Amino acid sequence: MFRVKKTKIPTVILKDFQKFASGYTKVHKEPDGPCVKTEIPGPKSKALFKELSDIQRALVNRPALGVFPGIDWPQKLRDVLLSVAPKGCNQVMTMMCGACSVESAFKAAFIWYCTNKRGGKTTFSDEELKSVMDNKAPGAPKLAIMSFKAPLLQGAFHGRTFGALATTRSKPIHKLDFPSFDWPCAIFPHYKYPLEEHKRENEEQDKKSLAHVCELFEKWEKKGIPVAGVIVEPIQSEGGDNHASPEFFQQLQAICASKCAALILDEVQTGCGPTGKMWCHEHFNLPSPPDLVTFSKKMLTGGYYARPEFKPPQAYRIFNTWMGDPSKLILLEQVLKVIKTEKLLDLVQCTGKVLKCGLHELECEFPDKINSVRGRGTFLAFDATSPEMRDKIMGNLKKNGVLGGVCGTTSVRLRPALTFAPKHAEIFLDILKKSLQQIK
Ligand SMILES: Cc1ncc(COP(=O)(O)O)c(C=O)c1O
């Protein structure tokens, strides 16, 4: 048996502390203690809760952004993130990174799908509550998210957390050794460039891919793992800057709607302006807004936008301690201001034309080294004729002062800042030309 000996603070220390504490309280204008003036929650909290609930499923009265948002948080969400929300998406959740934005978008899709299956009922059966604790159906239902691979090329990239990784189909090394879900993967269109010269073949690619999507919906339904959502990048980026046409995305949206599945557009890499529009999917003229749009990278904070029906019926279901970082919105507010006042989306389109035109000239001049120039805005890429050729190009670019990026197996991708102007494009093109000439 141990007896806890109560420590007595020596009087000298206590006196010192009291002296320090009274000075500290004065300097920091601390109240003497809590002072309850209204019932809890009071009218201010109730009003703020209501305001936040219009934008996202809110929960208050705990520390950290997810549960104890600052007084100005709803206004900040409105002024900053919702000011650039994709049309029709009036819900926004903030997250820390791209992968957890994707992960949370999947959860929103599953909650929406299951709530629909329950006929809108927002309560759970005893069996659901019990089975879910053993990771078993019906509480943990067998459901899938479909993603895309590219034939002969690398496919989708949606992040490296478990759910996101199950839909990532780029490099095996990302996925090796991790258990995963039995989720379907459709082939993404494999285009030839320039698009204008390969219209017919590329339309065939769209058809082939969409037929595969339909086939997989049915196959997984039969397996007893219905597809609740489809995730797709507007431009398959890490996988090699693989494009698909607006018609492809329009038809994909129609298929998802007909199967009562959510369409999730992953704009983590394409979002916030590099294609010349705030959101790349604005190029697609979708007949209705996408269900969920994930973002991160250039947006400084991660998160997703959603249509109103994707707000979970219960609080706390899409949640983590930090739920993003409010300071990022302060930075993003300024970034968006600069994008607007300096008309950076117009600049991206203008610079993009100069860059693309220059790249086309170079692919004509060096057909044995590069081809397949493609892209929107300054979100451009070209292919090297082999992985070895790409290594040589990248090596020379570096020696000549340009740090470049690669994607897929043979692609070189351009991802300049939004402030990249035609004069910068010309400097880059000169260096690229020199780098290509240096390869004998
Ligand atoms: C399209 C896409 N989705 C998701 C992610 C994952 O983002 P993060 O690295 O922030 O987890 C990436 C990262 O490159 C991406 O390009």
Biggest pleated-sheet summary: 7 strands, mixed
Total helical elements: 13
Largest sheet, spatial ordering of strands: 1-7-6-5-4-2-3
The class by helix and strand makeup works out as alpha/beta
Number of domains: 2
The residue-averaged pLDDT reads 92
Write the H/E string, N to C.
Answer: HHHEHHEHHEHEHEEEHHEEHEEH
Bound molecules: pyridoxal-5'-phosphate
CATH superfamily of the largest domain: Type I PLP-dependent aspartate aminotransferase-like (Major domain)
Strand content: 5-15%
- Uncertain runs: none
What is the radius of gyration? 26 Å
Helix proportion of residues, in percent?
A: 40-55%
Distance between the termini: 84 Å
Outline:
globular
The first-level CATH class of the largest domain is given as Alpha Beta
- What is the CATH third-level topology name of the largest domain? Aspartate Aminotransferase, domain 2
Total strand count, please?
11
